Amino acid sequence: MIPPLRRLSDQPTLYLLPTIIVVCIALMAFVDQPLALYCKSHLSPHWEGFFKVLTTLGEGWGWYAAGSGAFLWGWWRHRPATRAAALWLLTTLLGSGLLVHGLKAILGRSRPRLLFEQNVYGFDAFDGLHWATQSFPSGHSQTIWAAMTVLMVLRPNCRLAFIVVGCLVSVSRVATTVHFLSDVVMGGFLGMAFALMLRDFFLRRGK
Description:
Blueprint: H1 17-30, H2 32-42, H3 45-54, H4 60-76, H5 80-107, H6 112-118, H7 139-154, H8 159-175, H9 181-205
Helix pairs in contact: 1-9, 3-8, 4-5, 5-7, 5-9, 7-8, 7-9, 8-9
């Protein structure tokens, strides 16, 4: 029998949410601005080029394509475990992505560019309809950690490598001054939490 999705109140991962919120508030108050200014003025062109290439791993289209391909392969080869894993990845990406983009629109946090060019820093509620005010949370961090969490569960022997990839992509968003540190912390947490919330439901479908 396929287990139902558990209630939000039964999700242990969500117990970390208050702690993550406090951490993000502390980063916003004491770390985000000086770190962004430091990266803007000290990052060498070579490292900037490296991180700009690396950050493409956080773009959603590649992971959606991989998940769709895996699902079709599992369907063609009659492998329910592969289909279930692919659906888990796709659902995690879509669900956490919709949540992140909704928060971006509602919170309207200014990106580092506005800090550099106009000395603007903070939130403008319900004004996150433009790229410049869609900083929090980071969509790339949400995407990469959603994907890496799924892969860590499916391939635990490669867990360290997946953690390194997730961390590097998250760092790239800060190093290239597209996001503040608190943006990537919250985005990464939401991607990871969504994957873990759906884990049991989809993995048991593949048995």
